[in-house]
Amino acid sequence: MATTTVARNRRNRDRLASPVSMSVLYIMLFFTAVASAFPFYYMLVSSTYRTVDILRIPPPIWFGTAWMQNYEQLMSKDGLPYFWTSVLNSISIASFHTIAVLFFCSLAGYGFAKFRFPGRDALFAFLIATLMVPGALGLIPSFIVMRYLGWIETWYPLIIPGMANAFGIFWMRQYIESAIPNDMMDAARIDGAGEFRIYWGIVLPVITPALGALAILTFMGKWNEFQFPLLILKAQETYTLPVALSTLRSLRGTEIGVQILGSSIAIIPILIVFILASRQFMAGLTAGAVK
Amino acid sequence: MAPITFSSAEQAAQDRRTRRKEAKRNLWAYVFVSPFYVLYAVFGLFPLLYGVWLSFHQWDGISPMQWVGISNYVKLFTVDETWWKAIYNTVWLFFGATTPQLIFALILAFIINSGYVRFKDFFRAAYFMPFVASAVAVGILFSSLLGMQYGIFNYVISVSGLTPYLTAGDACVSWAIKTNSLGCAIDWLGSAFWLKPSIALVVLWQWTGYSMIIFLAGLQSINLELYEAARVDGASTRDIFFKITMPLLQGVILFQVVTSIIGAMQSFDIPVMLAGGTQSSSPGGTDQSGLTAMMQLYWSAFKYNTGSKSGFGYSSAMSFILFFIIVIFSYTYNRYNGKNQTEN
After folding, report:
1. For chain A, which domains are there?
2. Which of A243, B22, B110, B205 could form a disulfide with A239 if both were Cys (CB 3.0 to 4.6 A apart)?
3. A-chain residues within 8 Å CB-CB of B112?
4. Could you report the per-residue pLDDT of A210-241, keeping only the tens digit for each?
5. Are A282 and B280 within 8 A, CB to CB?
6. Out of A9, A137, A199, whose CB is closest to B319?
7. What ipTM score was computed for the predicted complex, to two decimals?
């Protein structure tokens, strides 16, 4: 199958594509790739310069030497003295949230995939419908609910509401439906295993690829989340990284290199994970679109 | 061979046993799926309904709520110019950023999937990269790239010899500004005219790869034999794109367009970072040209929460108007799209 596709592709290439149009195509594709990557490179470069050098004409395109100086300023009182606290906050919130998401979404996904309980289809349709409700509608009342619960300035609003979310459940159900043969569960039942034991001991180990993809996406989403943390977290020590960075932008006279250095610390870890696991990343995202 | 038969009493007992076992098993299934519904009831559905109730009130969040009927909506529709400016900007960004982004992504996906291209995985990953970056960090990064005196964009314009087009006699044309270092340059983030295109550019950069991945997944589910057959019949690439790819991709495109409408109408992170940071009292940049609906909603609820054209109730009314606009856009697309399909 794979070989015939390759052969067919090669045949198509040879037969239909003139060298000229192919070159144009590749130049276009290559240029777009450069445009996608260049800002990241620029980020690395400008984090090593002071503003006065970034302002130079022509702008620097190779690394400078002011990284340490920028770093010290980022940590200083005029920068973000709680910078590493913010990083730690982001890591903790994203990790707790991700672990909870993996558990609740795989559990519910298993429930939908492998049980035929009354009302299942209606419940699932409702779940999918909630995906189409814009978050804007709930923003203000959610804030009021959080305030009523005394959760302002805490991590709960960022961890708990999305623990069992429609996207994750949908994604896990799709995977479990095809990955777990019913015989496997029936055999375990005959051996007298309880339903939760079956989920924990038999289903979970088999679905680790899907869990991996969901974990990456969930972690990334939480790590980058901005609007809701901005609303909930008011004290510098509680900020997540994006919230901290957004205040850096507003501080008067902050060095450009310092701002960009801070941004690079928000971007680089996720970028590394992406480069290492780009397949899982992209596989997870397409689950909802192609049924 | 004769089928194995049970006496009817035995049969009934057997049935009861299986049913009981299955009912017990189903109980577990309800337990497994219930967390979503509990959480959604508290943090999704209740806020939604409470938001409806709120939108008929005047409330600053502290003093008692005051029932005002539909007057929030009336005010929003009749006297609140800032709100409509924000809606205009948001819709502008949908057509100026999201629409080109989707079209560009579709074309890229088509090219990459066409079978002519090598290094597919490389291009796919490269285009997708911007999506994983934090929008806040991206905003900071592009603020610098789009800087007026020094930004790479203005530098590239000046070295490509385009500066004369920005110059009018001794002065600059109306949409450019005199700088010390580069002569006439574009004030990307400082001028009311260029702010929206700048936001559009960043949106295009960050989201094209994501949309492309979705389209690509859809394309991969189309049988290659179809293309092959069309080629044999002498169809051009153009024909293939419009007569085979597009119709077969209908479902995926619909999904992507609708989720993009929902996303674009609520755009917040990038515009906030490019058009006035979180600490500013009036966001949106020069002339509030970069003020989106979501920014206005956020600020009027949580930042300048005084006066009759702000507060939780007033802003909740905004969110329902926004929802209504999303529904209209999605419905219009869906309808136009459906019509298109039957005509073909």
Report:
1. 2-67 (no CATH), 83-286 (1.10.3720.10)
2. A243
3. 29
4. 898 899 889 999 999 999 999 999 899 999 99
5. no
6. A137
7. 0.87
